[in-house]
Amino acid sequence: MKIIPLKETVSLKRAINQGTDKQRQTVAAILEDVKKKGDEALQKYTFMFDKVEITDTLVSPEEISEAYDAVSQDTLNIIREAINNIRDFHARQVQQSWMTTKEDGTILGQKVTSLDAVGVYVPGGRAAYPSSIIMNVVPAQVAGVKRIVMTSPPQKNNTLDNIVLVTAHELGVKEIHKVGGAQAIGALAYGTDSIQPVDKIVGPGNIYVALAKQLVFGVVAIDMIAGPSEIAVLADRTANSAYIAADLLSQAEHDPMATAILVTTDHSLAEKVAQEVSEQLATLPKKAIAEEAIQHYGAIYLAETMEQAVEAVNELAAEHLEIQTEDPWAILPSIRHAGAIFLGEHSSEPVGDYFAGPNHVLPTNGTARFSSPLTVEDFTKKSSIISYSKQAIQSQASKIATFARLEHLEAHARAVEKRLED
Amino acid sequence: MKIIPLKETVSLKRAINQGTDKQRQTVAAILEDVKKKGDEALQKYTFMFDKVEITDTLVSPEEISEAYDAVSQDTLNIIREAINNIRDFHARQVQQSWMTTKEDGTILGQKVTSLDAVGVYVPGGRAAYPSSIIMNVVPAQVAGVKRIVMTSPPQKNNTLDNIVLVTAHELGVKEIHKVGGAQAIGALAYGTDSIQPVDKIVGPGNIYVALAKQLVFGVVAIDMIAGPSEIAVLADRTANSAYIAADLLSQAEHDPMATAILVTTDHSLAEKVAQEVSEQLATLPKKAIAEEAIQHYGAIYLAETMEQAVEAVNELAAEHLEIQTEDPWAILPSIRHAGAIFLGEHSSEPVGDYFAGPNHVLPTNGTARFSSPLTVEDFTKKSSIISYSKQAIQSQASKIATFARLEHLEAHARAVEKRLED
After folding, report:
1. Structural domain range at position B395
2. Which of A65, A150, A367, B276 is 20 to 30 A off residue A389, Cα-Cα?
């Protein structure tokens, strides 16, 4: 890894795949087709892209039970423990409806209501990501969403990955459809005979899925479009170079465009981490990916002071930030922008990917400046509550009418003044 | 107004102005120009669109003090009382950072941080909307946003409307720039020599402003794009037809595409409201606008049962919902989708536009199914907090590593296992 003296500002190269015009047109055409032809279009595109003929997209109880046969008890126990931890954390995010009352009879408040129906997209491909299912389903369930629909492209054997099915069943997801790509997003947004529409679509996917989500946004809500993974480590001379290198590589293995950055005040640590990264990299199964990420999007910044280092990690606004310093809690209040903050040398980033409890769906691409991890709140919405008594409206009507007339809205003024007439 | 028997589903025509391709290209070109040429581009477009030559966009203390001279003490008092009410309500929305600890030394939590900088767009045009300034600035201030920048197109006399300036000053907004349109959005997103960039842009605007906000989304956060105003009233035979008519018209006067709908179980009320709407309409200054809205987007639905009526208003998912029934609080729990809910005959909708306290920036176009009023939370973001002790990582590392390997992420597994080495 390159060691670079930290200048006033850190400039971070970030890559976002926004898709080509051609991809956008393809996706728009698929969505239009699903909107018009429903299930027929789903069958057509599933045959075209997944090379599978489906007549019924719904996963059957037999498929679930066969999946269980293929998963070991050990694996099942770990998945269950992860679900418990993640459910426990998210349960603490639940917001209550609230109100405030005034002596003149006014009641004001905020009613929290869960969304009616949510679609969770689960990508296909060679590896299954049970953690992604857990992280998207749990907050929706904790929020109280009544209908959760999962969709995922069928494998060649006309079913889904065993771990995917088992994880969904463990979570209690009842409606699982074997359909993927832009066509799945179209079905979730517009509905077909076999898939009722939802109010929000979450979950990662390839560029076609991402573009489809952007295009149906407004008809339904969507989660953020995730960019490549990012890790920033803030460290001083007390940090363990082998730990830091391992954590940097854990994100680098995700994507050749993943970002892995160390900001440190200690030159000797910088050199040791660079050395450790080379050594640990050599034996990784995903060496090629991680190496490319480290080469293009990896860097070690050497800061003169801890203040300067902290300002740099704030500018990075990374998805994951590790603070590996003598007293990480003393630094926490100065951190303004990061998706998830890991404190101390034992808090290795992958702890947050699967097991600790907080969500692993985090803002990327510097959007931690204004975005948050996926939370229970993302599956609820609020309504304001306004209840005026006769006394309240009578004492305020003339003031409200004056305000309305300032804005040239006479009908507004008259509506409140109407209440003064008797 | 037409009286229509309520069928199983309510179909609501809704109009959204998504702009033309030509408008989109114009806006994209302006944004690009502002990004490249900064203040020079701002001057150019201000001269082109607002017919005003500006060299310094910043509003001066003299302009503020002249604006105060033109505003009456009465008006000032009403604005101050509105600000107080709205600040009091929003102060109750403040969320705290929180944490949970486990006996093995684990600390998990969520850190709430305010955004660094927010831009509030204030439209120009014939009428000034001080309420809009208050509703966008107050939640940002309550959230703790340090820098709030207001931008608004200059009038012919090279300054802003008096009420706009006074309201901004009363709120404590220090940085007010005389620049509007897409060029203002470009300046807020990319920054110029005289306007530093922000993290989020809020506030209403014309189609050019709305398109510009969509195009800079991702570089900065934006609020939702508001559609035409909507009101739905749910009423039984106990309701006051004159009140209902006045409230329907208060929204109809906003826009020829505004929606005004009554859903009632009482035929006689339906007829009386239709009659009252005609009568009250006749003398409104904005008669032409309100009449067009009522004609095209207004309707009275006659339901057979209150359950059916409630389901209909849930399907409408209106921006504003009034419940004018014998016992509105008994109905509240059944309301799943509405931006703001007004309970009882004294709770006239305009009460919520200026004065009561809750925000008047509300989801339109059926997005109340998944969106919320503007809140303090919209000006904060969260970071997950994860702190593992040595004991915690050592007892969980092998489980986390197993999970990582399920997902074929070997570097993740090794990062946690590294912590077992000593």
Report:
1. 388-418
2. B276
